[in-house]
Amino acid sequence: MAQTTGAENFVAATVELNITGTTFTAYNGTLSAVSVSGGERNTGTAWTADTDTPITRGGKRNPLEITVRFVYSQTSSEFYKVLLTQYATSGGGKCNMRYCPGGSSGDDIFTTNTATGMTILTALPYPSGEVETGEIIMIEATWVTPNIVQAAKA
Fold first, then answer.
1. Is residue 47 assigned to a domain?
2. Residue 150's pLDDT band (boundaries 50, 70, 90)?
3. In total, how many domains does the chain have?
4. Which residues make Cβ contacts (< 8 Å) with residue 40, sequence separation at least 6?
5. Does the pLDDT at position 137 exceed 80?
6. CB–CB of 20/26 below 8 Å?
7. Domain extent at residue 117
8. 3-state DSSP call for residue 83?
9. What one-character DSSP code corresponds to residue 28?
10. Would 132 be classed as within a structural domain?
11. pLDDT above 90: residue 8
């Protein structure tokens, strides 16, 4: 097989939040990184006296964990303040997210499960840092979702 010419990078990525249940809003001006982990499929295993290898079967998938790294800002309409309001809501609030690595129309977009209460904002640390370095404050928010749906960005 020939080497791919369709490689992507993350430099023009978009991240959008849906806190209203209907509309996604882009927060690209604070985005630094997105990582996804989890989703491993459970397996069942049994050994019998007949062979040295097990019988295996696939089970259900585990939830996915999405972590977004972003610049902290005190502006009320920016990522941290919007997330903080949702995080403070009992049960985690409705806070679905989606991201598009390529950032353009027609590129793949990955959306968390949008059913009510299915995607939960599980971690939103408060700002912290060192006084001597002058570095920009970065925050990592984490969501847990049962699945992610891939589609083409409109």
1. no
2. very high
3. 1
4. 61, 62
5. yes
6. no
7. 14-39+55-152
8. helix
9. T
10. yes
11. no
